[in-house]
## 1
Amino acid sequence: LRQIADAVKGGIRSAGGTPFEINTIGMCDGIAMGHIGMKYSLPSRELIADSVEAMAQAQGFDAMVFIPNCDKIIPGMLMAAVRLNIPSIFVSGGPMLAGRRGGRPGEKLDVNTLFTAVGRVKTGEMSEEELAELEHAACPGCGSCAGMFTANTMNCLTEALGMSLPGSGTIPAVEGRRIALARETGRQVMELLKANVCPRDIVTRKAVQNAFMVDMALGGSTNSVLHLIAIANEAGMKFPLDDINKISKGTPHLCKISPSGENRIEDLDLAGGIPAVMKEIEPLLNKGVKRVSGKTIGREIAKARVLDSEVIRPFTRPYSKTGGLTILFGNLAPEGAVVKSAAVSPKMVKHTGKARVFDSEEKATEAILGGKIKPGNVVVIRYEGPKGGPGMREMLGPTSIIIGMGLGESVALITDGRFSGATKGAAIGHVSPEAASRGPIAALKDGDTIVIDITKNRLDVDLTDKEMKVRLAKLPEFEPKIKSGYLLRYAEKVTSAGNGAVFES
């Protein structure tokens, strides 16, 4: 990012501007995982948006170039840009290259490889020595984690939204093209300033629809639903989950990138990047929207073409006719839940199983590692939502262990928490209302029959409405887990995942 910032400043100076550089906080979810730090990850999004607002207003900047690269920084900065509504443009630091080990030319590694490897070590399929070898090879250099995880999803969607120049989402962090793009971004912000083109001119309902279409074609992170809803909210728009389902049903799934497949972001870039994906779904897009490039979508992607039809499949030969993300509703999720259907085994698209209920991620992980979860079970992790966690931790640990232990085609997991973009399997998150708000998930008991049907957008429990109400009425008042500091204030203000986990207005 140091090099990117220097290049941006050079571009600004060359176009007659005077650059000033400020920073915001930036959490690495990989480091925050597995302890209380993950409770701060999603809440950091609001801190980032607020801190950018405070500095921009206090210092009176005329325009802004945002340089994000990790999970919550991208949406936090997009929220701030829309809120401030001064000429703004984004350029990311770029994705990491896939990791490789000597003697294995076809192998591609990323951080998700390590998480699933933990489960393989537990079952004896892999040695701790090989795990250590993977650890040293999986992340070979700078950049956002190499798969279609949350950071890369959001960087790609920033490009699809029209808030960054072509290539920002996919050019690898280590390439010279990334530096050239940063310099051009610095020059372009001066053009936006001259024309007084502001974020709310670009982030319109039609542009957000475009971003969701690209998201469905890519099979992006489930977290993108939270973040795009929150960004739209800053622009004064409501995006109900049912509207997202309609987009999913009309958009083919064209790319299988880790964790859904073996390709990485570098492969997507070589195949033509986001312009090529947009070219493939061009008939669906709203083409008249403004973009920071100053061009229409039609002009911007006019010369784009798919250079590898296995990385970006043709519109007529998709992986599925519907998008890579699916919203589920039912008596267990009346306000919706989200699943990365692109990463679900065909054997688990429909699943009925007995619930194993846990009131925290730690208790669930202990049971999974202890061999207490059997094929056919549905693991339920509750009181991990925005309010209940607080902070809506991502459940990459338990889902990865399930996959690594060979249970990915027989065990489902549902939670009012969320998942990493690296999560794969029948992992259903964002269950709303959450348990802390007395949502139906709070009424579940061990042995209840859970019915999942992703093909019909359904998530249900085999209980009558009367039984559900009786159980919920007997629950004690929710007691916050954190009783001081930022997380307490966050829990008091945050709304449900179905609303993007934004603060109450």
## 2
Amino acid sequence: MKGLDYTSFFKKGYGKIEKFVDPALLEPIRDELHRRMDLNNDMARINDHFAMVNQPWMTVPGVLELGLDDRILKIMTHSLGSSMGLGTCNLRHSFITPLKDTSTTMFHRDNNSKNFLKVFFYLNDVTDDADGPFTYVEGSHILRKETGYTIGSRWPDDQIEELYGKTKIIPLRANMGDLLIANTTGFHKGLQCSAATRGMLTLNYTTEAEKFGKFKITQAQLAELCTTKQQYCKYLDIV
């Protein structure tokens, strides 16, 4: 396994490390996602596009441990500095749907905090555009070519292609166990799933509490961590 090419990542806004974890480490997380979907239990949202678990740091075994993986923490400290800590977290299943693009399947920029990055793990192999890969506009975290941008706005493909060129729109295909990282202040979206469903775990790292509220962990979870890793939970709500 090769490490992250920081020069490329800082320039392009995205990176990939193949075979970062054994897929077997992600299987229980995927299975818990599916179990909750089947029961419609402890879900933050279910609609025609996706299902999303409520409070994954706290409620899904293995997620917090993965978020505090020493190798990820090293990448995030190098990229964000020593004030970095865990932010929000998203565990979701995207459905095959003929419905038109909406919300996160249209290009947008994130404004969770002033300085944050996202790590993505697919919970199944995503090897084709029809599998719904996370898609990034290379360099758009640095170069803002658009005018009239408003927070939360959604941009259709033709506008982004006109601004940045089709060759800068990069679908990030990866296998289960690969790590993807992105600066999502740049334009990005998830392609619509048209051939296969897609599971994904998204871990946020930030230098301040995110605007959308603190995610939770329990006092018992915090107590199980060493003092160093407890410090990375400073932007979480301890309940």
## 3
Amino acid sequence: MGINWQGNSMNKCFHDLQYTYATRQFEQGGDVLTVSKLLGHRNVNTTIDTYVHILDDLKEVLKKKL
């Protein structure tokens, strides 16, 4: 079932919102461990590999901080 926005189906699911949330948090300098915990991930690498793949430069910086 898609999410409707102003009556128009955007064909989005909850995971799309979660992905957007995580990506925006990282773009704004969010701490990877905090975002990972908020998303319910047991391993921060899951968060990095799943939600930051479009931000390759940021991904490398985050991995170096671990």
## 4
Amino acid sequence: HPCSIMLAQAALETGWGSSRFFTRANNTFGVWSFNPRESRMKARETRGGKAVYVKKYDNLYGSIIDYYKLIARGPYKEYREASGAGGNNPYEMIKYLNRYSELGDEYVRRLRLVMRQSALEKYDSYRLDPAYML
């Protein structure tokens, strides 16, 4: 999973780190909550008159783990196939994330713009030191 995509999604989903979901819930990727028994936070807006909730995390690590689970299990089969087939062009891969947001293709356009303007592809070769995760 190219770091440039993940960084662009984090930037968009958190309003560059300024969103209430990020600052109060450590929710880096706008992951929704459908389970009233999990830690979550109510959104100010509704969808079709129904309340929307996002997951609330103790730390950023939990948010990142859930993001990877969402990409691995959610409706992103084409994205996973492109990634598994040696997909190393993040600009080609992002078109398969149009279902990640209600914005659809506009979300993909915004991802592309953030990636290009911030030159995020330079981070695609970066890897975290496993010791950091302990």
